[in-house]
């Protein structure tokens, strides 16, 4: 009976409405469509006026029996919007447009999806050429638009409003809500998995902060995508991409079903990926399934785990007497002794550790373990040995990743397991505290190869450590005065080699060959007994902070490894003196090579130095576990080896000053010409302070001499050289004096405004630099000098701009006007004040920098004055 009815119904609809017409632009109530009714057109029933987009009732794949109301991009057949993503219908299920809105009905006539109720009746539905479906009343007022309810994609020109999310499809053949989300907050965009963040746009080196406003929406267009501020016009964050050239090129932003935020461009009938994040593919949290170990080589299981036989995706414990807890149903509690914690292994990390705060700080491993045992939704934890911090892993287990910085990461992960035979608990003894044993006990059945690789690796490590230990003096043997400071009290992990004072005296021939002096003291050349040449920095300007703080900082500095950072080989304490032993750099510091009397540095070398310095600083700011602000970026601290490779020195030393000192110190610190405005305005010092100084260094690389220049006219009238610029070699003599002495950053700004970039380049390189090359460096430098720190690029941004992976951003003139005040200082000789009656914190400043610091202080006073005189800008 029912079958006959169905056939009749089918026949009637066949005869009555089977349609070959596709509507154009607009449809009006009452309108009905189903895949079946429009089968001749594969379910398409409406096209936008210029046919850019098509609305259809479609299934994701020909074999699928799930049908959805979709809008797709006509040329590429890419679905950009889905109405009933979680409630698919069959091929005869219906889309209906009535006076009350859109509804979608399954075979039993029930509505499975509909637009909300409206106050007025719907007069028409339009599919626009932008891809937007709008419902209009009879006055053409928009009642509803699909752009306000994005699914997993936004198209060029669509406003993605703050607070909204894109939710990935479960799979390419299933449009239902998947596990990954892209959320837009008032400050940034972030990717989340099961509610846990694993990527933030603001931390991406390709995103450029342009304003401090709150975000109101995100929009994709021909030049990339932008987060637009509340004012509706100002760009807060921009991500630039290759410009769209052809009219038919088309760009979308979407979250892929495997958790990547991608921007795709359709060009020449092909999709090109312009942007994909996270860049490290392993940072998508479930790429290798539960507890799978993701690396560039693919997926594997950590030692002690094997591939989950049930799912063949992800890993489970190799020890059959243990099982992972079932999902937590809230009230389930077991006695803590039922749980055992299986280590994940050294150097293996979990994504959420990078984005969440520890559940507790300053606790022991056992406390952390107890915290996890008492919490049913805790599935494991990470414990930071050095920082004594405890991070809980909750709710879901994702993949394991390799630590990006093995040397620094001392966090160990443990997965909660339930012992199936509680009585054998003690025999198993699988508790967190005896980690080294576990790797042996839990020999996996499979993955033997992996184990042996790990074993070899550990073996190499131990050998290395042994070697190190050989060089390391064994403390108790040397009871000389350098050990009278009770350092043995402090057990600090990762402390570099400790040298004996007598060894350093011998190596430096009693400190007889000074090779430089910096903000903290003199530097001497030395040769160790094993013939290694080193630079020994004798620190005399230290605060009276405790030994423990000193050692902590040394341990941090000693554990930083990057090709563009000078390696700390060791240290020594002797009475009140501290010595730092660095690798020796044959070419000395950049100021000598750049401003010295030797042949001029070629442009290519200058560019490489600029990139190397940027990379080194970017690493300090975001590559290591603890952000390090250099605070004193200048050519004197940029060392070069024989191949002109950059090695930045003196990083991490700023922290050796005690807080009381740094208050005063910060106002006076740094070297003339490198000081960012925030030193003078009591604003917080941040990594962007280094960016400013870097911009100054970049300008000096361009012109081949000091920014503050030698002022020929001034010195003519005033035979005593001004203290403005620590006179560095013969820079003023090398270059023909310019007619008018001018503050170089200001000159750079003026020449930029006039597009005369080549006028800024070192005249010795004349003819060997193109305007394009010069323009790039000048623009990057000016962006670094923006007055508002948050609107300077990050060092990572700078690297990408220099390398060319990102287009160079236009400097903002409104943020550079302050240079005119700084600049005025150089054309008004009367402003050169005499150094009297300025109190200095005793013992803070090294003699070598005292005079320059003093003039900086005076400059700051005059800058403040000039600001007051001219009133608020
Ligand atoms: C649409 O259908 C409803 C009920 O089926 C009817 O009341 C209404 O008049 C129809 N509207 C038009 C424009 O045909
Ligand atoms: C609504 O828009 C359509 C097409 O754009 C137009 O023809 C019609 O006159 C408009 N109606 C009103 C009331 O403005
Ligand atoms: C993209 O949008 C931004 C911000 O609205 C704008 O400045 C830029 O010129 C646009 N680019 C193109 C190619 O339309
Ligand atoms: C529609 O597509 C054409 C060519 O493909 C393009 O020039 C036009 O800008 C598109 N219209 C909209 C509103 O996107
Ligand atoms: C943690 O640090 C302590 C000393 O601070 C050390 O004895 C212990 O071996 C370290 N544990 C691990 C697993 O590295
Ligand atoms: C239990 O652990 C989860 C996951 O880390 C955490 O979100 C939650 O706050 C914890 N609950 C308690 C009571 O500590």
UniProtKB/TrEMBL annotation:
GO function term, MF aspect, one: protein serine kinase activity
Domain annotation Apple: ranges: 328-419
Alphabetical UniProt keywords: ATP-binding, Disulfide bond, Glycoprotein, Kinase, Membrane, Nucleotide-binding, Serine/threonine-protein kinase, Signal, Transferase, Transmembrane, Transmembrane helix
Binding annotation for ATP: 538
Location in the cell: Membrane
Transmembrane region(s): 435-460
Domain of life: Eukaryota
Bulb-type lectin domain location: 7-148
Reaction(s) catalysed (UniProt annotation): L-threonyl-[protein] + ATP = O-phospho-L-threonyl-[protein] + ADP + H(+); L-seryl-[protein] + ATP = O-phospho-L-seryl-[protein] + ADP + H(+)
Signal peptide positions (record): 1-19
Catalytic class of the enzyme: transferase
Stretches assigned to the Protein kinase domain: 509-813
Pfam families in the record: B_lectin, Pkinase, S_locus_glycop
Principal location: membrane
GO BP annotation list: recognition of pollen
InterPro entries xrefs: Bulb-type_lectin_dom, Bulb-type_lectin_dom_sf, Kinase-like_dom_sf, Pan_app, Prot_kinase_dom, Protein_kinase_ATP_BS, S_locus_glycoprot_dom, Ser/Thr_kinase_AS
Entry GO CC: membrane
E.C. numbers: 2.7.11.1
Topology versus the membrane: Single-pass membrane protein
Presence of keyword Nucleotide-binding: yes
CDD domains per UniProt: B_lectin, STKc_IRAK
Family as reported in the entry's similarity comment: Belongs to the protein kinase superfamily. Ser/Thr protein kinase family.
Name this protein carries in UniProt: Receptor-like serine/threonine-protein kinase
